[in-house]
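Sequence in, structure out.
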Amino acid sequence: MGSSMFEIVKRDGLARIGVLHTPRARLDTPALLPVVNPKLATVSPSQLYHHFGFKALITNSYIIRNSTGLNERALDEGLHRLLDYPGVIMTDSGTFQSHMYGEVEVSNEEIIGFQRAAGSDIGTVLDIFAEPYWTEEQTAASIETTLGRTEEAAGMKEGMMLAGVVQGSVYPRLRESCARAMASMDVDVHPIGGVVPLMEQYRYRELVDVVLSSKKGLLPARPVHLFGAGHPMLISLAALMGCDMFDSASYAKFARDDRLMFVDGTARLQDMHGLECDCPACGDHDLESLRGLPKKEREVTIARHNLYELKKEMARVRRAISEGSIWELAEIRCRAHPALLDGLRRVADHAELLERHEPLSRDGAMFYTGPETLRRPALHRYRQRSQSRYLPPFQEYVALDEKGKPHGRYQGDEFRSLLSQGALPLVRTAFGPVPPELDEIYPLAQSLFPTISDADADAAAEEGAAAFLAAHGLKPSVKSPSEGDYDVNALRAVAVARYQFGEEAASLLFDGALELVVSRKTGKIRNVLVSGEHVLSMRASDGFYTLRPEGAAKLMEGLRAPVMRVTVMDDAVPFNREGRNVFCAFVTDCDPGLRPMDEAMVVSSADELVAVGRALLTREEMLAFNKGVAVKTRDGVPSKE
């Protein structure tokens, strides 16, 4: 539903790099839209596009409509000629003016009609700004008005894309229900509104609840715009939560007050003791020369500095998402202010939503930046699965200190000796206890922690150990280690399959005579053969399996649909059998248990195996998007006919 064409190009959990195809131009996201005051442009729209590279901006249609000269020019020439801006123009409706100054003298129908007539690429509904101090009842009533206006606007938008704003004040339940109602309407972009007061008052903990509650109700195939989130220190946290678009009026507002924006906060020019900035705006200045500029020139210079800071941070955020390190970046940035750290810590309270979008593994290592790292969804998943999917070979254990990663490389002899005595070696880590069979999987082996531990990591290790031991009923061993030998790889082969695919799938895959092909150089498992069939290959990069067609065939015989399946339209079957990728537009169903980067079996409507590959999206995303790749196919499976 909706004319919006949005696709995910790269993702890191909820954070995503995407493309919004507007009727005018392609907009790469995450994208920052500078706010342009149509009466007072500190930096011209033309410069924003051509010099700074901002391919979209936001301006206020209410101000333009109520200014006689601007009104006539906008309707006669169009917004793009009026502003001399060739990129995507999004227009606000006057809602923020109602928040600032009271009721606005325009109807929803009038402002939507004006935005459309003036050639706005993305128009905005005249929603009700739900203030943070409103009661739940007052907020609920205002949402009904906002939803009614959005429905009205959807019927008027014609060729203009429409932004349906999620409101709900500070009430998560109302935010989610408003978002779900918006998701059913013919809109294209979803701004999260009514949040500027929260940001101005540094109420980031509540902001996190507002954003993630909204995300739970919205369609993933529409970009999410966080209204007013235009400070560089906040952008990484907002992107981490799945926001795709931001806007900033602060670059100009702060400049008028001699305030410079940085990734670690805002500095008043009069209070600064040095100008440690090499951006093009500051390059020719020291502190004294900047202070000595005439007021207007100084304002423009600081505004340009603020834009460079925003541009640089947006590029850094995109790079982090692309490299799979958005968590590290957000954790570092949120140490700029205690209130931001509160917000980051609040993110972890939404563990279920985060885990559902958390990839099975990442290309790079996980870096420990502080106690917040211990609450990442990857660690949450390990604790869950190690307690529910792991099957200890013995009921007695011996706790060992960590000496290096992977543990088997540094403690292999000790592992084999204990196993030969019927005792399970468990290495103490901040993840919780790590048995020898799982020590090579992501993120256990692909993580870097300081060698000098801290109280939070020690507490996490103790808490994880208590939960793990209780889940499996393990008791300390009274045996003394002695010389012996034990094939850890034989245990590893099954344990990793149980952890990755689940108990039932592992039983089906290993039903037969087991043969392991092991690297002569590293001693690691390369291939798993069962009854002579090559069913699995183990990746050295993350310690997980890739599923072979022979293994998929075994799973198809015993696993009921939709487990591990992505179902495609029959029209797409011949292409996927040739090994071509599965596109979202052709997906009709998907196992809700699949996570990004999980192994997936592509099947026809008749549940016939078509191909094997890796899922790139969640079920909700596959079914919501009509562009982009859903499964990266590795092996096509020929028809049996």
